[in-house]
Amino acid sequence: MADEKFDVVVIGGGSKALVTALYLQSYGGMKVCIFERMHELGGAWCSIERLAPGFIGDTHSSTMSDWYFLPLLYDFPKFEEYGAKFFGYKVGLAQVIKSKPEDSLVIYSYFDDPSGEKTAKEIARYSERDAETFLKFDDAHFRLGRREALLETIFSIAPPPEEPDPMERWYKDYLKRPDAVLDPQLILMSMVDSGRALFESSEYRALMTSVIARMDINPMKPLGGTGWFIAQGRRENNRVVGGTHNIAHAVIRLFVEHGGKFYSRREVDKIIIENGTAKGIRLTDGTEVSGRIVVSGQDPYQLAFRFIGKEHLERKVWMKVGALDRSENMINWYTFALHEIPRYTAAARNPDIDTAQWTHIANGEDDEMAKEACLRYAGLEPPCPQVRCCPTDSDIDPTRQPPGKGTLLVETLTLPKTFRSEREWLKYKMDMARHMINEIHIAAPNIRWESVIGVDSNGPFDIGNRHLNMATGNQLVVDPNPATKGKFAPIIEWARHRIPGVKNLYGTGSAWSSFHSAYCGQGYKCYKAIAEDFNLRKPWEEKNRPW
Ligand SMILES: Cc1cc2nc3c(=O)[nH]c(=O)nc-3n(C[C@H](O)[C@H](O)[C@H](O)COP(=O)(O)OP(=O)(O)OC[C@H]3O[C@@H](n4cnc5c(N)ncnc54)[C@H](O)[C@@H]3O)c2cc1C
To answer: Does the predicted model carry a pTM greater than 0.85?
Structure first.
């Protein structure tokens, strides 16, 4: 291995670096090698049969859409054939309020309800005016250009900080429209406050706020007004047939077919830097591998504090990386193998709730998730954390479980890995599994502990142990907020994927994001930066697309 010559060495084969590696190998014509510390590539694109034999669960990302992978779908015609297939749900989001389980709020998916009219009728049961406001948000996102601006933003290298990105340009124009639902003040408000100014129905506010609280916006912090759009975009989410690891398989197969090489169970410890230029990597076993270009697919902390070191970085950069927060986005992500999926009491009114991707089982208070977040910020666990769940059975995706059975992904939020000892986590995990089943039982009486065949309980303790880049157990690597997203992600100096002070070194990973998730954009944008610097092929220009 040490004798081999590579143009590019890549640190880690996760959902971002793998995509950079694929583009460099295929369109860039470079000889690329990935070094991955786990037994296989894919990182958080991971699905395993751990809950019970024959049942597959996504351990680290599950909600995805085909638009997360648009560049790959355009640039690699075999991507879909090799396993990147998606399935949708009739209902995108639903909510059952625990005190009235016979009632529900159902938000249909975009695929089932492209005009939004069916969903508007559901919302109108609570408030006619809210239904109208919902339709205005829906129009702006799906029909007045917000979706296109989002795609352009998340698949383009961030502009310099003083220039607007495509989404900022869109907002500037949109806010001039007389029918705009948002205004600059609403955008500055928190999601809870802007929700109270926009919607009458606490049920609608509670559902949408809890969606966002689980993704990336703390509902009580400023700059939450745009969260109403993000929640709207969730109507377009789906999942990967057979599990998200199939995306990894498709990308790896393309990479290898184009001549790419990888080594698993090889942990990188250092980037070799000579005269301010990256020359290769050193593994934990001491092996050195040289490359003209080094790509890190890791978190900013490993990149700065482990791979590069203080001597090569400006003090300001060093300090800023150290100040990046990663204490908020902790989830319990359990997949249950079940004899059957939930059948909701509320299905008597609207049977479509049984086809919901995510059902929130809630108290119906719009600040429920904000209160939970406050407690966690103080290091305390809320007594009864809100549960949401996502089913599959053979009608939804027959590849994930034996015929007649079901799987149920269930989520609550929690505290960082270090807040409990291993023994305490073990006890907590058992208690949490029971809490989840008890809460779901309120909404769907057919689910009880006897329905459970097995469970894969995955929380910050497991996530932090498995992923060096998510060391605190943070699902998004770095907590997203307006100061760590887009042109500022993860810090201004690194946002365009180059690492000032170290020539030929590029950074990517979840933290380089305008959209924190398992989408492929950060990896694609990193290739764009390298293609600019080394004059490589640019498929987006050849195919004349805006991103
Ligand atoms: C429980 C959970 C649920 C989630 N749910 C969703 C969801 O539903 N939808 C969604 O879009 N996103 C979801 N996410 C978020 C998303 O999966 C991650 O933010 C994203 O995939 C991280 O991508 P990455 O490339 O930065 O890291 P990873 O995919 O983790 O890749 C990093 C890779 O680098 C390797 N590595 C680390 N250190 C080294 C080293 N020193 N040397 C060599 N290799 C190394 C790791 O083993 C790993 O393979 C979830 C995350 C978690 C944890």
So the answer is: yes
